[in-house]
Amino acid sequence: MDRAASPAYVVWELTLQCDLSCRHCGSRAGKARKDELTTAEALAFAAQLVEMGTEEVTLIGGEAYLHEGWLDIAAWLASRGVRVGILTGGRGMTRERAQQAKDAGVVSMSVSVDALEELHDALRGHVGSYAKAMAAIGHARDAGLQVAANTQITRPALRHIEPLFELLCAAGIEAWQVSMTVPMGRAADEPDLLLQPYQVLEVLPMLARIHTRAKARGVRLFPGNDIGYFGPYEAQLRAENAGGYRGTCSAGRSTMGVEADGAIKGCPSLPSRDYVGGSIRDAPLREIWERAAPLRFTRDRTASSLWGYCATCYYAEACMGGCSWTAHVLFGRIGNNPYCHHRALELLAEGKRERIVQATRAPGEPFDHGTFACIEEPWPEAERELAVVLAETGEGFLPAT
User: Fold this and answer.
1) What pLDDT, on a 0 to 100 scale, did the predictor assign at position 205?
2) Cα-based torsion angle of the residue sequence 354, 357, 363, 368 in order, rounded to the nearest 10 degrees
3) Residues 76, 290: Cα–Cα separation, whole Å
4) What is the rounded CA–CA span in Å between residue 91 and residue 341?
5) CA 123/CA 25 separation, integer angstroms
6) Quick check: 229 and 342 in contact, CB under 8 A?
7) What are the beta bridge partners of residue 13?
8) Contact, 273 vs 329, CB < 8 A?
9) Distances in whole angstroms, Cα of residue 217 to Cα of each of 85, 275, 276
10) Structure confidence by residue, pLDDT tens digits, 283-328
């Protein structure tokens, strides 16, 4: 047993039912899971979270508001001093629902917006979803909630990100979380949605540019755990982190994910098949948290688990291969992550880059993945010249792909 770690931050999928059909959805949300927790079961589980010292819970789906007990669960947690947030695609987040969330004790709401209007609607699978998401930001703001946006960067939307920031600021966001789409769930079915690893040379300077503008406007921009690592913008983008850089994966140490049927894993994004440590229907949360090997992998891990480029990296001990989610859904194992700014810069200095190619397809289950091969190749000369300018100045883009 290990009682040094505790699930301070929990992301809780209340239902897999969803009113959007996003092409990049890692959980393949749409229909409810079989045997999802009832409201009574969820409230009993909420009591276990409080007992375990959970400080913050983000309620997600699918769409959390499609669970009949979402307000009761939010209110119970809030009444026990837990900070409660909602993550939503916004399609059905009406003014009434936003006010109900506020009245229940919800503190913050983050709305997913992934691109400018036409592409956002195409990615989310519904015409009008962009307008609904932007309206949801307004409803949350009017209800007195802290309002944020979250964005997945797909390859087609890469050049939408900077103008999207301006639109989100005009809508009144206070914070913005940005991450990269990874090949899980439906995103594994469409490799063309994925950035290539060498495109982090564009993503990181772009986020640094936006970060400077955001700070001047009082908007907090924070990168997801899959963004980084240890390049020239690390200290700027991770200034709020201890030490000013992204630490090792926190799954199962301070974070925890809960699936709608009561399955427990160390991070809400991790593949269910390999990382679920147990169900609250079968064992108390404390027992699962303290004993289950799939939740302990970051607590017991050493640098010996690294392989490929990451095994030889100067930052191996501090980084431990970056985001476990990204690595596993690419290769079927953790410990080697090509979406690394430091790595891309080091390879660029040698005239090389990395490109991923799908090797096997995903089986079609929630939180599933296929596998990819990572190919190291010479930079095409014209593109290499642009990449060097990017590395030296932080300005510009590579040719659109």
Assistant:
1) 96
2) 20
3) 25
4) 35
5) 9
6) yes
7) 60
8) no
9) 23, 40, 41
10) 999 999 999 999 999 998 999 999 999 999 999 999 999 999 999 9
